[in-house]
């Protein structure tokens, strides 16, 4: 079946990041650095690798560093040029977005992830789109969203990345009500946000990558606050399923680092530091001395 291509991605970056305070008091969580680049940088590169052409950010106050990161920095460029550092200059320019491919809108109050995604409705319009939660750093081959977009080419409908968690952790995640487990792909007849372990329909939970059909906006528009008194994206997805849309969870190949959590953030820095082509060797020596 020929599906409408996934060309657009939404990055909801309006959250407060309270789990990782005080780092996030004056700095966006998405600008926290893993090894040598901010989290947002990894997410954009992943989206590009999946063929995304238009990038929409749902931001809030005090998030302007995200916009600046993807803009030309004249003073910096002039200084690098003056010092003859053309290689660094080329590297900086290589990942700048094409003019007009990035757009920013604001979520004025942190009413929940579902509300943040709904804030991008006019930018997305009437086509399938990806959502990337930047604090879920996904590292692997194939890149996470690319693997999902390729699967979407066959399944259509909606796809979310999933991982199995211990049952006592279901109250932290959206959980799939599984109808058919095909291994890599799982079809679901419902999704529940943060169920108590005893009530969870499975232990297969949604992590921060989604491919969603635009009908979700109509559902989110009328959504009452759910778990945590927030407007939940999971509730919008559940309505899509109830409306008869195909819905799959995908056990993705990429590894997830939960960088919205202090320990997960440290783990990401160590793991990616060790993998780094030039820093990895000396970093391993340092770690060996330390432990
Ligand atoms: P989180 O649940 O991680 O919330 O949101 P948070 O506010 O960022 O962090 P904590 O829990 O206080 O530490 C998941 C994603 O949804 C976005 C966040 O920016 C994050 O990428 N989000 C959440 C919004 O954009 N708006 C919201 O109202 C809530």
Q: Can you walk me through this structure?
A:
The protein has one domain (8-290): Spore Coat Polysaccharide Biosynthesis Protein SpsA, Chain A, CATH 3.90.550. The chain has eleven helices and 13 strands. The chain has helices spanning 39-49, 64-69, 74-82, 86-94, 113-118, 121-124, 144-155, 216-221, 233-242, 262-275, 280-290, and strands spanning 8-12, 33-34, 37-38, 54-59, 102-106, 129-132, 136-139, 158-164, 174-181, 185-193, 204-212, 247-251, 255-258. The chain has a nine-stranded mixed β-sheet with strand order 5-4-1-6-11-8-12-10-9. A two-stranded antiparallel sheet has the order 2-3. Strands 7-13 form a two-stranded antiparallel ribbon. A hairpin with a 3-residue loop joins strand 9 and strand 10 (185-193). Helix 10 (262-275) crosses helix 11. The longest helix has 14 residues, at 262-275. It is globular and about 60 Å long. It starts with 7 loop residues before the first strand and ends with a helix. Residues 12-20, 29, 58, 107, 110-113, 115-116, 133-135, 260 line the site of uridine 5'-triphosphate (UTP).
Please give a handful of descriptors for the protein shown.
nine-stranded mixed beta sheet, two-stranded antiparallel sheet, Spore Coat Polysaccharide Biosynthesis Protein SpsA, Chain A, 291 residues, binds uridine 5'-triphosphate, alpha/beta
CATH superfamily caption? Spore Coat Polysaccharide Biosynthesis Protein SpsA, Chain A
Number of β-strand runs = 13
Give the CA-based shape: globular
Bound molecules: uridine 5'-triphosphate
- As laid out across the biggest beta sheet, the strand order is 5-4-1-6-11-8-12-10-9
Report, as a whole number of angstroms, the end-to-end distance. Answer: 54 Å
Spans of 5+ residues with little confidence (pLDDT < 50)? Answer: none
Mean pLDDT: 94
Beta-strand proportion: 15-25%
Largest sheet: 9 strands, mixed
Structural class: alpha/beta
How helix-rich are the residues, as a percent range?
25-40%
Number of domains: 1
The assembly state of the depicted protein chains is single chain
* CA-based gyration radius: 19 Å
CATH fold node name: Spore Coat Polysaccharide Biosynthesis Protein SpsA, Chain A
């Amino acid at each position: 079946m020929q599906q409408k291509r996934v060309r657009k991605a939404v990055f909801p970056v309006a959250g407060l990041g309270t789990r990782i305070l005080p780092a996030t008091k004056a700095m966006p969580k998405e600008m926290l650095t893993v090894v040598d680049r901010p989290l947002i940088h990894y997410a954009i590169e992943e989206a590009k690798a999946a063929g995304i052409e238009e990038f929409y950010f749902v931001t809030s106050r005090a998030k302007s560093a995200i916009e600046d990161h993807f803009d030309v920095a004249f003073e910096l460029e002039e200084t690098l040029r003056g010092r003859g550092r053309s290689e660094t200059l080329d590297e900086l320019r290589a990942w700048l977005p094409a003019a007009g491919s990035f757009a920013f809108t604001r979520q004025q109050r942190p009413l929940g992830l579902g509300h943040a995604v709904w804030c991008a409705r006019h930018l997305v319009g009437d086509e399938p789109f990806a959502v990337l939660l930047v604090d879920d750093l996904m590292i692997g081959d194939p890149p996470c969203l690319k693997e999902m977009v390729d699967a979407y080419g066959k399944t259509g409908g909606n796809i979310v990345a999933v991982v199995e968690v211990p049952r006592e952790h279901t109250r932290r995640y959206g959980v799939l009500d599984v109808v058919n487990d095909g291994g890599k792909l799982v079809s679901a007849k419902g999704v529940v946000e943060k169920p108590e372990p005893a009530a969870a329909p499975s232990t297969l939970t949604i992590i921060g990558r989604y491919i969603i059909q635009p009908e979700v906006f109509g559902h989110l528009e009328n959504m009452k606050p759910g778990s945590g008194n927030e407007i939940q994206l999971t509730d919008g997805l559940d309505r899509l399923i109830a409306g008869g849309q195909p819905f799959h969870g995908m056990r993705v190949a990429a590894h997830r680092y939960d960088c919205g959590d202090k320990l997960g953030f440290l783990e990401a820095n160590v793991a990616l530091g060790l993998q780094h082509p030039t820093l990895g060797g000396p970093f391993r020596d340092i770690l060996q001395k330390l432990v």
